[in-house]
Specification:
It comes from Telluria mixta. This is Pilus assembly protein PilM. InterPro entries: ATPase_NBD, FtsA/MreB, Heat_shock_70_CS, PilM, SHS2_FtsA. Pfam families: PilM_2 (PF11104). The chain has helices at about 60-75, 105-120, 150-165, 175-190, 230-240, 245-250, 260-285, 305-315, 335-340, 345-350; strands at about 15-20, 25-35, 35-45, 55, 55-60, 80-85, 90-100, 125-135, 140-150, 170-175, 195-205, 210-215, 215-225, 295, 320, 330. The protein is α/β, with parallel strands linked by helices. A 6-stranded mixed beta sheet has the order 10-6-1-2-3-16. A 5-stranded mixed beta sheet has the order 13-12-11-14-15, sandwiched between helices. A 3-stranded antiparallel beta sheet has the order 7-9-8. α4 crosses α10 and α7 crosses α8. The longest helix is centred in the C-terminal third of the chain and has 27 residues, at about 260-285.
Length: about 350
């Protein structure tokens, strides 16, 4: 069984959330400021060299470990326990039904037996965890259990990176679960209708992850190959810049006058088209016929005009996520910089929330 603490739920010791993505690493430290309110104590980010992380796989452990060391130093955190994320494609999840009331040792045996039917690897090659969801509707004799499994080597790579930076990996979560937890905190605290259907689009470097939520439940998930790296590559080709320089200038907007019309506008159109296609696929492959709200997350949401063009094409209210909304800000947080960077911290924020169960 997985030895890093649950993929699901128990309250953890003081820890920070550490998100390792294709483009960089991001760290978030939260604290309880009392009366049920949270405070953002610290956040920091460091870019990764191209190819260090590919499709969620750690290809250059030394480069990623160096970036983690830098982000810890930059943040100023003194906490050594971390919650890490695994990409959704690297984790197999399955809901199973087991007899209710099993003792813990028998429950583990039953879970392993059931897992062997769904996992295409030998059990000694995977890290396996489970969480009891609750009783099955209309059957008090049964309970629903969620199991999760990941290749052990992928888990160990992330543990090794944490240890190389002087950290202790305490929790291993699934990135999409962490993102949804951070978004759900916002939905729970606002005044919108509770039965609304919200589509979360996390636009990463190479892929966009789509999650559709209703009443705190995930009703649909999908990943499609579209991200911000396409625009960066267009900038490289058009202006003869290095990839790293193109990425920096894309974020700052420090590019020639024709950039917006010739490169940014077509990318925005493609982004809106990808979102529209994803929504149509959701309608045709599920019983649902509406989406009430679109929420955008990821570093690419900093690009000007993205929410407006998506709202115009889909005719659905669209906003950029603010994962730290409603939190107090610690003295180390620069509010102006946070406004710009916050949409890229959704996963790291969700991981940091694991401190509170």
């Amino acid at each position: 069984m997985i030895s890093l603490g649950s993929l699901f739920g128990q309250k953890s010791p003081p820890l920070v959330g550490l998100d390792i993505s294709t483009s960089g690493v991001r760290l978030v430290e939260l604290s309880d400021s009392g009366k049920g309110e949270l405070r953002l104590e610290r956040h920091a980010a460091e870019p990764l060299p191209r190819g260090a992380v590919v499709d969620g796989n750690i290809e250059n452990i030394e480069a990623v470990s160096d970036a983690v060391r830098r982000v810890v130093q930059k943040s100023g955190t003194r906490i050594k326990h971390v919650a890490l994320g695994m990409p959704p494609a690297a984790v197999i999840t399955k809901k199973i039904i087991l007899p209710a009331g099993l003792p813990e040792d028998q429950l583990e045996v039953q879970v392993e037996s059931e897992a062997s039917q769904y996992i295409p690897f030998a059990l000694d090659e995977v890290s396996l965890d489970f969480d009891v969801i609750g009783p099955v509707a209309n059957s008090v004799e049964d309970m629903e259990v969620m199991l999760a499994a990941a290749r052990r080597e992928k888990v160990e790579d992330r543990v090794a990176i944490a240890e190389a930076a002087g950290l202790t990996a305490t929790v291993m979560d699934i990135e999409s679960y962490a993102a949804r937890a951070a978004l759900q905190r916002l939905l729970d605290n606002d005044k919108g209708p509770k039965d609304r259907i919200v589509a979360l689009f996390q636009i990463g470097a190479n892929a966009t992850h789509v999650s559709v939520l209703q009443n705190g439940e995930t009703v649909y998930e999908r990943e499609q190959p579209f991200g911000g790296v396409q625009l960066t590559q267009d900038i490289v080709r058009a202006y003869g810049l290095s990839f790293e320089d193109a990425e920096t200038r894309k974020k700052s907007g420090d590019l020639p006058d024709n950039y917006r019309a010739d490169l940014l506008a077509p990318w925005l159109e493609n982004a809106a088209l990808e979102v529209t296609r994803a929504i149509q696929f959701f309608y045709t492959s599920t019983p649902y016929t509406r989406i009430d709200q679109i929420v955008l997350a990821g570093g690419s949401t900093q690009l000007p005009g993205l929410p407006d063009i998506i709202a115009g094409r889909t005719r659905i209210a669209t906003s950029v996520v603010a994962p730290f909304f409603g939190m107090q800000l610690g003295p180390a947080v620069r509010e102006q910089q946070l406004r710009t960077d916050a949409p890229g911290y959704l996963v790291a924020c969700g991981l940091a929330l694991r401190r509170f169960g």
